[in-house]
Amino acid sequence: MKTDYINNYIEKNISEKRKRHIYAVKDTALKLASLYGADLEKVETAVLFHDMFKELSGQEMNQYIKHFNLDSKYLNNSNLAHSKIAAAVMAKDYEITDEDILNAVSYHTTGRPNMSKLEKIIYLADAIEPNREYPGVEELRKAAFVNLDDACILSLTRTIDYVQSQNSILDEDTIKARDYLKEMKRLKEIVDEQ
Predict the structure, then answer these.
(1) pTM of the model
(2) What DSSP line would sit under the chain, residue for residue?
(3) How many CB atoms neighbour CB 97 within 10 A?
(4) What averages of pLDDT result for each successive group of 10 residues across the chain (194 residues)?
């Protein structure tokens, strides 16, 4: 897929700070994709779209949510809404039909049960890109280049703990994603022991 039009949109419509983030996520995601054998073109497309609507006003986001008939839980919640809007616009306006790319964008903030390799890479790259600074990010960066699933479990667990400590809205997909990965890890350990 040609990404020139996406890069054009980013250059014209996104703040410098957000551009730095998007391109840092891209570099990180491509490194993870090379390590874990993911499709580099899909990675690049997902990354370039992932935060395209992050800087919309609350009113603009709410209009998109209503326009695309997205769940009302996303109203007035830009942290969760921007990814769902981006995926909807990708499908409608850019005619991107690859479910893996759409899911990677849609769930890059929350995760979800049974994430694909691409989804895990976008989720983690967003969390560990070099401009991110928060307690535990260095440990998470190291973990991401050792084991994709373990790094996702670590990141999801920390997100759950942080959001709950802030008394903020926690998307149930985050809990389900963590629990799913933990269960898959437990089942794999049982199989490995036999």
Answers:
(1) 0.94
(2) ---HHHHHHHHHHS-HHHHHHHHHHHHHHHHHHHHHT--HHHHHHHHHHHTTTTTS-HHHHHHHHHHTT--GGGTT-HHHHHHHHHHHHHHHHS----HHHHHHHHTTTT--TT--HHHHHHHHHHHHSTT---TTHHHHHHHHTT-HHHHHHHHHHHHHHHHHHTT----HHHHHHHHHHHHHHHHHHHHHH-
(3) 9
(4) 76 93 97 98 96 93 96 91 96 94 97 98 98 95 98 97 91 97 93 84
Domain ranges, residue 15 = 4-193
What residue has token string 């921007």?
Answer: 82
**Domain of residue 14, CATH code:** 1.10.3210.10
Number of domains into which the chain is organized: 1
Cα gap 175→170, rounded to integer Å: 8
Tokens describing residue 64: 């998109």
pLDDT value at residue 9: 84
